[in-house]
Amino acid sequence: MPLLGLLSTFVACGPSGISLSGTATVDGTPIQKGKISLVPKANVNSPTAMAPIIDGEFTIPAASQLREGSFDLRVSITADRTPKAQLTFLQGGNKAAVGTAISQALKDAPPSEESFTSDLEVTGSEDGIQLEFKREPEPKKRR
User: Fold this and answer.
1) HSE value, Cβ hemisphere, 13 Å, CA-based, for 52
2) How far, CA to CA in Å, does 31 sit from each of 114, 132, 135?
3) How far, in Å, are 37, 68, 121 from residue 118 at the CA level?
4) Does the reported pTM lie above 0.70?
5) Which segments show compositional bias classed as Basic and acidic residues (predicted)?
6) Those residues with Cβ within 8 angstroms of residue 45's Cβ, 6 or more apart along the chain or in another chain
7) Which of 50, 56, 112, 140 is the most buried (most CB within 10 A)?
């Protein structure tokens, strides 16, 4: 009988949360580096769950203790701050040229972080979730 008591204790201590895994894309392109977080809405008895996104894939393990319910889904993309164009250092005295070069370098650099939000209803463990986000087109500038 002591073995049965030990076995039931072991089973009760195992992970009892929900696991989720899948892919995350923006405009059809996998998110290279970022994070996903699920924040429970009011009256949902679950902790917040977070996981990294690497090469478009994420896994929230059962050990996170995620429970069923409604969640605010937040996906953040972390971009490398390597600008597309190198800033050329100009000789002092030509403030207009320096200002133009700095402005172009800032324009070419990717944002340090970009975020997307949505709602997600969690009803049980699931593999193969596809999270697809689209960027809003930038409004046209008036002249």
Assistant:
1) 5
2) 11, 10, 13
3) 11, 17, 10
4) no
5) 132-143
6) 67, 69
7) 56
25 alpha carbon, distance to own chain's centre: 10
User: Which residue type sits at 62?
Assistant: A
Tokens of 123: 């009803």
pLDDT for 53-93, tens place per residue? 999 999 999 999 999 999 999 999 987 655 444 444 455 55
| pLDDT tens digits, one per residue of 117-127 | 999 999 999 99
Q: Which two three-digit tokens encode residue 51?
A: 């996981």
39 within 8 A of 66, measured Cβ to Cβ: no
Give the mean pLDDT of the chain: 78
Distance CA 127, CA 27 (A): 22
pLDDT at 98: 61
CA gap 4, 1 in Å, rounded: 5
